[in-house]
Design brief:
The protein is mostly helical. Helices cover 48% and strands 0% of the residues. The protein has a single domain (3-325), classed as Alpha/alpha barrel (Glycosyltransferase), CATH 1.50.10. It starts with a helix and ends with a helix. The mean pLDDT is 93.
């Protein structure tokens, strides 16, 4: 990235940090101080937040979180696994809790108990393989501080599930049977991918976040083609029906759940891709242009449940820009 842009980015990150610190929000202040300013902060400062305690009261004795009060969309879907993952995503990726907290350790143990012998996490799409959920679960467990051989097993399984072009797709979506997902979920066995079909940038972006999260696996040489593929697909429509429109690249959110421009850049910033890469630089320039006058970035979801959604996007944008442009 050209030096002049780095100077501009430094000012943008500074304005973003000032905006975050202007909020009287414990979790935002904790993450900003620790991750953007590099300061030592008591990691237990967020443990007693009302929203944390309210969430943890829902935890079952075995560590899971059940999705209650909502009618299941598909009877074959493992809703407890999905809910436990989503709760961990909020508590770990946003609030900063780790396995030092007993509730997080129990939830992590329960999720790892759902892992198959092959290494994936199955059930969220019934009988079908889910590289994106397997990777997302592995990523949040690593971020929480889990150091377990079962994580390595998942990473090896992910490498074994690549498409011929080096990225990933939802295997059942590459097959004719995938046109009716509800029916495919009830099949007795998972369907192997048609590896000659193109990768999905939605899935590739999510899988790369698992490799990016892991200090050792992020250096694995076999993921380089997937990094190149993800960068080259930025702002394009996906090859498959799931979140296909190119507009999804611009719908920023944090914690990262799907693939958007910010989540992709965040992963690539940890995977050794240079800011000088033309596709990455184009994404960074787009991200810089999206900063608002008050120093914040907007969430792409106007009706997000968290009123601080835009501030969390601002935190993630500052962190990504600092990694790429400021050596942060």
């Amino acid at each position: 990235m050209i030096p002049a842009m780095s100077v501009d980015v430094q000012q943008q990150v500074k304005r973003g940090v000032e905006r975050l610190l202007a909020e009287s929000d414990v979790a935002l202040a904790f993450r900003t101080q620790r991750d953007l300013l590099g300061r030592r902060v008591d990691p237990t400062v967020t443990w007693s937040l009302p929203e944390v305690e309210r969430t943890l009261r829902r935890q079952a004795p075995d560590g899971r979180f059940a999705r209650g009060g909502l009618r299941p969309v598909r009877s074959a879907e493992d809703y407890d696994q999905l809910e436990t993952f989503e709760v961990l995503l909020e508590l770990v990726s946003k609030v900063g809790l780790g396995i030092e907290h007993r509730a997080i350790a129990r939830a992590a143990d329960w999720l790892l108990g759902r892992q198959t012998q092959a290494g994936d996490f199955r059930g969220i799409l019934g009988s079908q393989y889910t590289p994106y959920y397997s990777a997302a679960i592995a990523a949040v467990l690593v971020e929480a501080g889990v150091d377990d051989p079962r994580i390595d097993r998942c990473m090896r399984w992910l490498l074994s599930m690549r498409q011929a072009d080096g990225g990933w797709a939802i295997p059942v979506r590459t097959r004719a049977e995938g046109s009716n997902l509800s029916r495919a979920m009830t099949l007795a066995k998972p369907l192997a991918p048609d590896r000659e079909r193109p990768s999905s940038h939605l899935v590739t972006g999510i899988v790369l976040r698992a490799f990016a999260a892991h200090p050792r696996w992020r250096r694995h040489q076999e993921i380089a083609p997937a990094c190149r593929l993800l960068a080259s697909r930025m702002f394009q429509a996906d090859a498959y029906a799931d979140r296909r429109a190119a507009s999804y690249w611009r719908k920023l959110a944090f914690p990262f759940r799907w693939t958007d421009a910010l989540s992709a850049l965040d992963a690539l910033s940890l995977l050794g891709v240079s800011a000088d890469d033309p596709d990455v630089e184009r994404g960074l320039r787009w991200l810089c242009r999206k900063q608002r006058r008050d120093g914040s970035w907007a969430s792409g979801y106007a009706h997000a449940k968290d009123p601080r959604a835009a501030l969390w996007v601002t935190f993630a944008a500052c962190r990504t820009l600092a990694r790429f442009c400021l050596g942060g």
